[in-house]
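Appendix B.2, paired examples.
Example (i):
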Amino acid sequence: MIKRIIIIGIIILMITVTSSGCFEEDKKETTESVELYSFYVDDDANPSWYNSTHFKTIQSAIDNSSEGDTIFVYNGVYYEQLLINKSIELIGSDQTKIIGNITGQMIVAWITAEAESDVFFCNFIITYENKYDYTVGISCSSDNSTIKNCKIKNCGYGIAVSGINNYIDSCNFYNNRYGLHISNAKFINVSECFFENNTKSGLDIYGSSYSNIKKCNFLKNKNGVSIKPIYYSSIPEDISPPPKFSKNNKINLCNFIDNIVHANLYPQSYDNSFDNGSVGNYWDDYNGTDENNDGMGDIPYNISEFPVQDNYPSMNPFVIY
């Protein structure tokens, strides 16, 4: 019990010291006369502040932007549902909150395939006032886009991502049904994210391949990670395509603590690895020893009966910033 309390304390400290930068620290608006972003949004500014580049709603700024523009959103609470259909950068302050509702598209922020690529979405709190099973915090179907430093909570799906070569970096997923849902995707990169109290799965990899998951914390989820194929059960068997496998996904340098099931791998999910050939993950229920004191357990950690193993389980949790 003492060990577990210490571990959880370490994880909380990791989150406390996590940076909230968006690679854009040099672009902050330092004075009213020096404006370094393309557009600005503030929900409660003086009426005289609003003009052709300063808006009251985020969607108004998006609608008026062009490819390559950057939008900065000041702290506030924005009751909006965003449609992002062009390659832009959208950057919030530390406490910029967007709250969705269950009318309309049931998606708070939708990065569509029309955006094609290179959307940058950073520093937002995404939530619903009440949690419903099929609401979505952020839906991303473009390619080569980045979602960074966001906190997503009370959603059916925190982030639902498809496409190719998208990045999810330094995001926190709390109290969702599924934290991060990767579906029908390839080469999704997830790093330094925190998954806690998600009632189905922290991370759900569904019919997707070649994802790279590293330096993440999975704490108190029903399933820390789920990996499963797509079955086409609604299509008659004689014309149904074969299942879309989830394969060649890599998960390592992560901490798995107090999940009901740390990793749940379904049949026809294969060639997924939980170590990089020298270092694996930390599993709080691993009971092996480390006779040579190299920090890795001497015997593999068994993940499922297929079989899947972490061949280099860490004896101690990783420090993740």
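Example (ii):
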Amino acid sequence: MRLRSVVLLFVLAALMLPPDGVAGEGQLQKNKALAQRVFDDILNKDKYELFTEMYAKDFVKHVDRRDYTLEQEIMAAKGMRIAVSDPIMTVDLMTAEGDKVAILYTGRGTNDGPFNGMPATGRKLVISGTTIYRFANGKIAEEWTTYNDLEILRQLGYFPGPAEKNKAVARRVFTEIFNQGKFEVANEIYAPDFVNHGQTRDIGLKEDQDAARMWVQAIPDLVMTVDKMVAEGDLVTVLWTGKGTTAGTGSGSPSTSKKIHARGITIWRVVDGKLKEEWSAFDELSLLQQIGMLPQTKQ
């Protein structure tokens, strides 16, 4: 009878134990707290000495097609701090089950130091990623993590995103067509059905380029400068300045060798890598007064 009771006691005890890989609620909370400290203490506060306290000696980090040791993980954390001196790493979501903790995080900061051999850009960064930690004996034993390297390069300006590509197309109008007189590249820059929406009427590509030729002929030393650019979605806005000396007759103005200075704003819609629509405005009255076609306005 006593033997039967002892056997029954062991069976009941075994049934009460969590299965392999399953942690009790208390252990899950401890694992979560340790995972949170990676972001709060190590990454945000540079407490690299905590790596040996919180990570197993044989820790392995799995990233894409490569694995990292604990020593390499420490070096990577220090290298990121050099690249971004003001990081703020935030845990957005955290879930735990068994011996694993999954995290969705966001990192913010300024690239004010070298990054992977590339010079500092001074640009702000916002990145997000996911990490899964596996715990053993109260320490982080293994990690799987993913983040978008391409998006980091885009934000740093090393790999142009859609906005940067659209800016590059718009910039060619000034650097190649106006400043270099390369009107033959218009078909590369503008869509065949391009429309310039004027103040009173719309014009197509041919008439638009004829007008550009007229100004280049009238002002042979014309220099168009892009002062500021703002891009979002399929739109690019450019604040530009034009300077030069009237020496030709393309615009119908007398060849009086007068200096001109004009500033305007142009908005382009870019579709499939080409300029599709345009809206431009500049002070035409001031320009005509500068070249002598109209009298100066009395103050």
